């Protein structure tokens, strides 16, 4: 049992960083540069649960360009749960949204349906149109090929089944449920006026919610992020930001470089770069 809990925590941390350091700060916002294998490693960790990097990055770039408007792919304007999971299943009533949130593997089912539609020639072009930079990379194109993501998920299912049977499936369900709901919490909790605060006037409903930052590797400082999307650090005013700590370790190890932070925070966040 101890091994199950420890291994779960290790995988949850690594896969979570694949999303926050990899998909979000490195691929979407190009907040820093990383060596080829570091970029590939974080991308693959993200791909284990977040879907194709091109799809995720495209959706997120759309979100930044249209935050809390009619064209925002995900916003809690139509209700908290609609912003959490309703946008994925085209539902506004809380019940189906909550059931989907609890399903754990629901996102993987949506990814499978998305790929089947693409194989049938119904290719949503919008996401790829804002990811021309990623489409130049063979790894990104490969991961964006229809059925590659479902294949990666099936490998996980077979692996945990062979190792621990139904307990393994339960372990994987808990992992995916935690990963997906953590990501969705940014869209719902961190855009919901009842939580946190808005240190910056960004013209949208984004919020800094420090307690969300604890289980999202620092992504809870979402208003700061909307104000400075390119910043490699999200906890500009202090607070838990594991992703920024990992980026700093990568830079210290010469595995990453050129972190961007707002000029007014540079002295505080990157003191060694101010000579
Ligand atoms: Zn947002
Ligand atoms: Zn972002």
Features:
mainly alpha; 2 strands; binds zinc ion; two-stranded antiparallel ribbon; 275 residues; 1% strand; 13 helices
Structural description of this entry:
By secondary structure, the protein is mainly alpha-helical. The protein has one domain. Helix content is 60%, strand content 1%. The protein has 13 helices and 2 strands, in the order H-E-H-H-H-H-H-H-H-H-H-H-H-E-H. It has a two-stranded antiparallel sheet with strand order 1-2. Helix 4 packs across helix 5 (94-102) and helix 4 runs antiparallel to helix 9 (148-188). The N and C termini lie far apart (51 Å). The chain binds zinc ion (2 copies). One zinc ion (ZN) is lined by residues 63, 67, 191, 206, 222, 226.
Please sum up the structure shown.
This protein has 275 residues and is mainly α.
State the helix count.
13
Strand content range: under 5%
Provide the succession of SSEs. HEHHHHHHHHHHHEH
Mean pLDDT: 95
- Largest beta sheet: strand ordering: 1-2
* β-strand number: 2
Q: Please summarize the sheet with the most strands.
A: 2 strands, antiparallel
Domain count, please report it.
1
Spatial extent as radius of gyration: 18 Å
From the N-terminal CA to the C-terminal CA, the straight-line distance is 51 Å
Low-confidence stretches: none
> Roughly how much helix do the residues carry, as a percent range?
55-70%
Bound molecules: zinc ion
Shape: globular
Question: Helix/strand-derived class?
Answer: mainly alpha
């Amino acid at each position: 049992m101890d091994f199950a809990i420890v291994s779960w925590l290790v995988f949850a941390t690594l896969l979570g960083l694949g999303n926050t350091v990899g998909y979000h700060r490195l691929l979407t916002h190009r907040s820093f540069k990383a060596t080829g294998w570091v970029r590939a490693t974080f991308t693959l960790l993200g791909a284990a649960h977040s879907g194709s990097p091109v799809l995720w990055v495209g959706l997120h770039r759309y979100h930044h360009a249209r935050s809390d408007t009619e064209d925002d792919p995900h916003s809690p304007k139509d209700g908290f749960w609609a912003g959490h999971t309703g946008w994925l299943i085209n539902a506004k009533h809380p019940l189906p949204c909550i059931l989907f949130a609890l399903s754990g593997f629901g996102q993987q089912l949506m990814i499978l349906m998305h790929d089947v539609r693409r194989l049938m020639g119904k290719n949503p072009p919008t996401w790829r149109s804002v990811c021309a930079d990623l489409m130049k990379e063979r790894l990104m194109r490969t991961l964006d090929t229809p059925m590659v993501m479902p294949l990666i998920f099936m490998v996980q299912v077979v692996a945990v089944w062979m190792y621990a049977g139904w307990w393994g499936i339960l372990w994987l369900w808990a992992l995916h449920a935690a990963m997906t709901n953590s990501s969705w919490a940014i869209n719902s909790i961190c855009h919901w006026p009842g939580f946190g605060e808005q240190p910056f006037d960004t013209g949208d409903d984004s919020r800094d919610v420090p307690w969300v930052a604890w289980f999202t590797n620092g992504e809870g400082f979402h208003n700061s992020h909307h104000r400075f999307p390119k910043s490699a650090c999200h906890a500009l005013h202090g607070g838990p930001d594991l992703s920024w700590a990992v980026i700093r370790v990568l830079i210290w190890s010469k595995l990453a470089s050129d972190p961007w932070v707002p000029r007014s925070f540079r002295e505080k966040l990157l003191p060694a770069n101010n000579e």
